[in-house]
From TrEMBL:
The chain crosses the membrane at residues 21-41, 279-310, 331-362, 374-396. GO terms for cellular component: plasma membrane. Belongs to the ABC-4 integral membrane protein family. Keywords: Cell membrane, Membrane, Transmembrane, Transmembrane helix. Pfam families: FtsX, MacB_PCD. It is found in: Cell membrane. Residues 290-406 form the ABC3 transporter permease C-terminal domain. It is a multi-pass membrane protein. One of its GO terms (molecular function) is transmembrane transporter activity. It comes from Abyssobacteria bacterium (strain SURF_5). This is ABC transporter permease. Residues 21-248 form the MacB-like periplasmic core domain. InterPro entries: ABC3_permease_C, MacB_PCD, Macrolide_Exporter_MacB.
Length: 413
């Protein structure tokens, strides 16, 4: 009942100064709407970064050979190293930390032909593990199988855009024929479209075609060496230890010192993904901080208005105390008015923030410009911050009002 009276009296006092109350509420409304929008946008941005960064692959390690500087086992230093298929097998057999490994040979900008249709693309020679390492999802048909690699079969798996360019009638893509550098391959699968991604290697994934690495060596390059090895760690958090284990095995196989850091070029995509996660977290903290600061600025406006109200109502406070009002009654009255302003403004601000977020999500925008994601946590978090702001804004004016002496207040002009 007391709270109901305080609320009713707060509304009456606010209604007596409508323009001033409305201008004060504007700061809280804008601050709350900003918090809701920025928290939602920060959440959406983090999710976009996670999704885009992992589209190319859920963290893997790229290794290619360079020049060994070390002299070991009677082998001279300063010699060029080359990977062969047996080195991929050694990595898979001797590295418990490795889940998948594939040789990778790539030839970019090759013109591929099917009937009268021509389209440039990248031809990639791999083994079946590439599908798991690079997150390649089959839309139709199948991916490469171990038998395709063992027998060097002339089969090919097309990415989405490449398949669409070579086979405008999509129903004819499977079991169609694609000619590359005069060699005809049978189409056994079409991949799901990935779209533009934040991270890629060697060009757009949707413009690539995959064939057995043995067919690549035999029919395309005439080269028996392997350009790169892609490794997928069994535990993403242990990618650094996995890297060192693979380096030690390759050092043993190729006769160079494991301490020779120039013998291999290694790029840990898992490390890049971790860095992107850190950047996304920093961005979320940054936008949240801006929103909270904006709300606190609105709270300062409420506190100023409440201090002015205390001054204007000094005689009223004196009269109430003279007829028996306790210090706690005055304290609760002014705290109630501050909370009434902030909660009413905050609720309007939440509605406005959600409306802005929905409008922004519905508007056309670049893929990497994330749509805000409004969640229950965002709403509860905004309401909590808003309530705390109201309490902080009301404490000082309420304490000042409650501390006034009745006799001095009655003499105030």
């Amino acid at each position: 009942m007391i709270l109901q009276n305080i609320f009713a009296e707060s509304l009456q006092n606010l209604g007596s100064n409508r323009l001033r109350s409305a201008l004060t509420m504007l700061g809280i409304i804008w601050g709350t709407a900003s918090v809701v929008f920025l928290l939602g946008w920060g959440r959406g941005f983090v999710n976009v970064m996670h999704t885009e960064a992992r589209t190319v692959g859920d963290g893997f390690i790229i290794i290619w050979p360079k020049r060994a500087r070390s002299e070991i086992s009677g082998r001279k230093g300063a010699r060029q190293l080359y990977f062969e298929m047996k080195h991929v097998d050694a990595v898979l057999a001797q590295c418990p930390s490795v889940r998948y490994a594939t040789p990778v040979e790539e030839w970019g900008g090759l013109v591929m032909k099917s009937g009268n249709n021509l389209k440039p693309g990248n031809l990639v020679g791999v083994n079946p593990d590439a599908a798991s390492i690079l997150n390649l999802k089959i839309d139709r048909g199948r991916f490469l199988q171990p038998a395709d690699v063992d027998h060097g079969r002339r089969v090919i798996v097309l990415a989405a855009d490449l398949a669409q360019g070579l086979f405008p009638d999509e129903s004819k893509a499977l079991e169609g024929r694609v000619k590359v550098r005069g060699v005809t391959f049978e189409v056994i699968g079409v991949l799901e479209r990935k779209g533009d991604t934040l991270v890629d290697w060697g060009g757009r994934d949707d413009d690539k075609a995959y064939i057995p690495v043995t067919a690549f060596h035999k029919d395309i390059s005439g080269w028996r060496y392997v350009g790169m090895i892609f490794v997928h760690p069994r535990d993403q958090a242990q990618s650094k230890a996995c890297t060192e284990e693979v380096r030690a095995v390759l050092a043993k196989e190729l006769d160079f010192s494991p301490d020779d850091k120039e013998a291999l070029e290694i790029i840990d995509i898992s490390g890049i993904l971790t860095s992107l996660d850190t950047m996304a977290l920093i961005a979320a903290i940054f936008v949240t901080t801006i929103g909270v600061i904006t709300l606190l600025v609105g709270g300062v406006g409420v506190m100023n208005i409440m201090l002015i109200s205390v001054t204007e109502r000094t005689r009223e406070i004196g009269i109430r105390k003279a007829i028996g009002a306790k210090r706690s009654h005055i304290l609760l009255q002014f705290l109630g008015e501050a909370l009434t302003i902030t909660i009413a403004s905050g609720l309007i601000g939440i509605v406005l923030g959600v409306a802005l977020s929905l409008a922004f999500a519905a508007a056309p925008r670049p893929k990497l410009l994330a749509a805000p994601e409004i969640s229950t946590i965002t709403i509860i978090g905004s309401f909590t911050v808003m309530t705390l702001t109201g309490l902080l804004a009301g404490v000082l004016p309420a304490r000042r009002a409650a501390g006034l002496e009745p006799a001095e207040s009655l003499r105030y002009e």
